Amino acid sequence: MGDPKGFLKISREGIEPRNVLERLKDYKEIYKPTTEKFVAKQASRCMDCGVPFCNSGCPLGNLIPEFNDAVHMDEWQKAYEILIQTNNFPEFTGRICPAPCEAACVLGLNNLPVTIENIEKQIIEHAFTEGWVKPNNISEESGKKIAVIGSGPAGLAVADQLNKAGHQVTVFERNEKPGGLLRYGIPDFKLEKSVVDRRVDLMKSSGISFRCNANIGFDIDIAEIEADHDAIVLCGGSTIPRDLNIPGREATGVHFAMDFLEKSNKYIDGGLQQLPAIHVKDKKVIVIGGGDTGADCVGTANRQCAASITQIELLSKPDLQRGDNDPWPLWPMILRTSTSHEEGCQREWSIQTKKFIKNESGMLNGLEIVKIEWAIDSKTGRYDFIEIADSTTIIDCDVVFIAAGFLHPQKVGILDQLGIELDNRGNVATQNYQTNLSHVFAAGDIRRGNLWLSGRSMKAGKQQEQSTNSLWVKLNWKVSMSML
Q1: Tens of pLDDT, residues 153-180
Q2: What digits encode the pLDDT tens for the residues 175-224?
Q3: What is the SS3 assignment for 419?
Q4: With pLDDT > 90 as the criterion, what percentage of the chain qualifies?
Q5: For residues 184 and 256, what is the distance between their CA atoms, to the nearest angstrom?
Q6: Helix/strand/coil (H, E, C) string of 274-320?
Q7: Does this chain's domain 6-130 share its CATH topology with 243-402?
Q8: How far apart are CA 26 and CA 407, in angstroms?
Q9: Contact 367, 357 (CB under 8 A)
Q10: Are the C-beta atoms of 442 and 433 separated by less than 8 Å?
Q11: What is the per-residue pLDDT for 192?
């Protein structure tokens, strides 16, 4: 350990974002470049704890104290070698992971945790600059051909691991380019697509093949894939969004959040030449859902110059500090203000949506809401809500984005055609990642489901359920459990 008193002498400092007025004019990454000296100073705050809870807080099991110490000692190549032992894509996690490792950092007991995510990002970017990141070196080929269906974070991680094992891997993607959620769901101001392209190019150099515009089960028969490959790995994600089946849902102007984000990302990828099908310039926008996807809608709507943006959440406003239900090292259910919120957004909590209001032409022009109050049900021990009398109001709006999570994977197509068995939540049922078919496996959200929704909507619930789920509540990026 380089500096055993580093955490006593140095305060936590994050990477500085660009000025709001500047960054709203583009879709570039919001954070300014930083120096290795600055990051090394932050790494010296790591206490090298006897029991490093950050390791268990990280779903990947990253060896965090080890690479922190290497950075502090200016041993960047060593830090990189330590990091890639457990992490396929540090350039992604270093930008968009919610950092449960920091929530579990022992220093967080009575101080601010180490800036682990920023350190991770700097390690991998330094490694790319120095040329240390190279294609996989395959010493012996297995002779097996594997089809990976879906090129999101799970599919990419699976392909990378199988490639390292010597298998011939082809990744099938129904969209125009590889990346899945990384490319089409996450805005460029959080993850520029050049970062995704850089990794995909490296995987191609490792011998991994990518077939895009390949919608298996529709454009390409799944039987053809079975005939040409020894095994199939399903990595299609949880793609069926949770809807709001309330009066007026058919109004023009009500959209799912992911439709908005995907169209915006394709617009940016096309060089900003033609406005996307969903554009909110000078419109009054409401985002239903207080999570990360909702915040991404806020940031995108700000860049499209919306007239106003309001984000509403069914749950009550979180506290600023941990409570009895989320003690360290569990994931803290505290109030978080993202950089998108800082750019301009009104936020409301304990709001239930009752009705979409439309005019005679079918265009959305209002949202009927009611304030609610949360209380514990004495019979079940769970939180539930009641509507507050005389609190119903109507908010003027032109566009609503529903960001309420996802229910399960798409069943029509591959799953139905293969006869894949599902669990009681509609996800692919597996044993050690294997489905009911011996040659078909599944990884990522198609198997585990959208845990963001199931964890957060729990509110408090029984203590046992809270303890089981808290560390996984906010994982928007789920490569962590996706590898075979």
Answers
A1: 999 999 999 999 999 999 999 999 999 9
A2: 999 999 999 999 999 999 999 999 999 999 999 999 999 999 999 999 99
A3: coil
A4: 83
A5: 14
A6: CCCCCCCCCCEEEEECCCHHHHHHHHHHHHCCCCEEEEECCCCCCEC
A7: no
A8: 33
A9: yes
A10: yes
A11: 97
Choose which CATH entry (3.20.20.70, 3.90.950.20, 3.50.50.60, 2.60.120.600) describes domain 243-402.
3.50.50.60
Q: Distance between CA atoms of 199 and 155, rounded to whole angstroms?
A: 13
User: Token pair for residue 126?
Assistant: 């330094």
- All structural domains of the chain with their residue ranges: 6-130, 145-239+406-481, 243-402
pLDDT tens digit string along 317-370?
A: 999 999 888 899 889 999 999 999 999 999 999 999 999 999 999 999 999 999
Instruction: State residue 37's pLDDT score.
Output: 95
Cβ atoms 55, 63 nearer than 8 A: yes
The partner residues of 269 in beta bridges, in order of sequence, read none
Class of domain 6-130: mainly alpha
Distance CA 36, CA 43 (A): 10
| Confidence (pLDDT) at 1 | 57
Domain 145-239+406-481 top-level CATH class: alpha beta
Secondary structure (H, E, C), 193-222: HHHHHHHHHHHHHCCCEEECCCCECCCECH
Closest CA to 183 of 209, 158, 208, 155: 155
* Length reported for the chain: 484
pTM of the model: 0.90
